[in-house]
Design a protein that fits this description.
mainly beta, 231 residues, 21-stranded antiparallel β-sheet, 1 helix
């Protein structure tokens, strides 16, 4: 095993490789054994360490409370940056990438592969998730007993909101829309297409059907009557 110390002119040569001037380096060390090499540069509160073995490399830089770490092997890379309570991590392998940010009780995550992307944010009991593939996108928000979902593809959109036993569902495509609010015993369905609307109210064994259309209103003698109820 060989240990090389930066002395005299050799310090200037090694320091220049790392981007330091000769007078600025207070401590520089290199340890080397076959294909394994370790480098350490230190100046006041700033420190850089590099360990390398064949295609595997680890780097660490630290200044006061700020720290950065990088590990690399072939096409795989991991990065971590930390300052006080803030931490950011990133992992990458070819086209697959994962990022994580964390601050106290807040956490954000992002995963990406080609055209697929997934994101997640969390703060205490509040959580948001987003998944996207080409033009298809799904969003989910959750807080305690409340949950909201939204799915979208081109002109088609679906939404769902839920709080305890109460639930609302909405489906929409161009000019066509369906709304369904309901709980354990109560349910309402509303179908709407342009100027035509159908509503269904269901409660236990009781049901009401509502049909509304500006076109149908002209079929009767009274133009003001355009609602038809069937029970």
């Amino acid at each position: 095993m060989r240990l090389l110390l930066s002395l005299g002119n050799k310090e200037s040569r090694i320091g220049g490789v790392l981007g330091f001037e000769e007078n600025n380096i207070s401590n520089f060390r290199i340890a080397q054994y076959d294909n394994f090499e370790v480098r350490i540069a230190q100046f006041d509160n700033f420190e850089v360490r590099i360990a390398q073995y064949d295609n595997f490399e680890v780097r660490k830089a630290q200044f006061h409370n700020f720290e950065v770490r990088i590990a690399q092997y072939d096409n795989f890379e991991v990065k971590k940056a930390q300052l006080h309570n803030v931490e950011v991590r990133k992992a990458q392998f070819h086209n697959f990438e994962v990022r994580i940010a964390q601050f106290d009780n807040f956490e954000g995550k992002k995963a990406q592969l080609h055209n697929f992307e997934f994101r997640k944010a969390q703060f205490h009991n509040f959580e948001v998730r987003i998944a996207q593939f080409h033009n298809f996108k799904v969003r989910i928000a959750q807080f305690d007993n409340f949950e909201g979902k939204k799915a979208q593809l081109h002109n088609f959109e679906f939404r769902k909101a839920q709080f305890h036993n109460f639930e609302v569902r909405i489906a929409q495509f161009d000019n066509f829309e369906v709304n369904i609010p309901k709980n354990d015993t109560f349910e309402v369905r509303i179908l709407q297409f342009d100027n035509f609307e159908v509503g269904i109210l269901h409660f236990d064994n009781f049901e009401v059907l509502l049909i509304h259309s500006t076109v149908l209103s002209h079929l009767g003698d009274d133009d003001d009557v355009d609602d038809f109820y069937v029970t």
